[in-house]
Amino acid sequence: MASCIGPENDSSRYSHLFSFSGLNKAGMDGCDKDTQERIIYEMSKNSSYFKQAERQDKQTDAKISAIKTLFDAITDKQESHLKLAAVNKSVDIEKHRSFDRICCVLDMDMFYAAVEIRDNPHLKDLPVAVGGASMICTANYVARKFGVRSAMPGFIATKLCPNLVFVNCNFEKYERVASQIRSIIGDYDPHFHSHSLDEVYFDLTNAAINKHNQLIN
To answer: Which pTM was predicted?
Structure first.
């Protein structure tokens, strides 16, 4: 994809207003950021969402300006005192930090799309998005190369990737698969935490100790 705009255009200047803008997700290497920003901006600039985001952005700028004013009023003596307090706090925290536990986070990338591709292998090499015209839940790596990503409106995604294949959400199926994965993790940590279908937080310490003891005995 060829670059269409320069970095100083409105599309780049306002890109931070959109949660679905940017290339900070896995699989988006090589995507043309300029083209993504231009299309998102052009298709959103007259929307109520954009106008509300602009108002919130101005409010944020005003808060930042007020904070900067407070910082500018800090004397050298106060700054030295604050820096020393920060260093002392850091040293105190470091004393209590522990590396005795092996804690893990499992983040199942493009989870919904991966489940759909598992059940429909012909989708593997196609740009796939789970969701619809109003909102995308996730997209596979092929679609991400075009700038398509989660939380993006589907009508913008099809502008970025005209051949995008939409698959309707099937949360009952995703819940079944997530339960299967959790049951495996439960064998290692029965007290794991999961706040969404595609993320699990667990402690491998006891499982690692048990495995170590099995190997040496």
So the answer is: 0.76
